[in-house]
Specification:
Layout lengths: L3 E5 L8 E6 L2 E7 L5 E5 L13 E3 L2 E3 L6 E3 L16 E7 L2 E9 L4
Antiparallel strand pairs: 1-9, 2-3, 3-4, 4-8, 5-6, 6-7, 8-9
Length: 109
């Protein structure tokens, strides 16, 4: 698989998550306050809730339902009740296009 256009940079608002789906894989895409674009799995590992409906603060995305915050860089939960990470996808910016390959996870180590 190769990276596909998920959306345009102009579709993103700073510190707000947008839900996209590529090849059946739901993702939350975020333009953080530093201008960096992140893509993480859109489903909270605690309650099967869409993370893109949550709240962005700094480099975290918080699930609106139960308050678990996930690192946009690593996908790791930063507090309970979630204890399993969400996947983090590699993002490429090409002009105004945000490209993501749902088969390629970002190296978070």
């Amino acid at each position: 698989m190769t990276a596909q256009k998920a959306l345009s940079l102009s579709d993103l608002t700073q510190d707000t998550a947008v839900r996209v789906e590529i090849d059946g894989v739901p993702m939350a895409v975020v333009l953080d306050s530093n201008g960096e674009v992140h893509a993480i799995g859109d489903t909270c590992t605690h309650g099967d809730i869409s993370l893109s409906d949550g709240f962005v603060e700094g480099e975290t995305l918080e699930c609106w339902a139960h308050g678990s915050a996930f690192s946009l860089r690593t996908g790791r939960p930063l507090n309970l009740p979630a204890y399993e990470p969400v996947p983090v996808y590699a993002v490429t910016i090409d002009g105004n296009d945000v490209l993501i390959d749902p088969a390629v996870l970002k190296d978070v180590n």
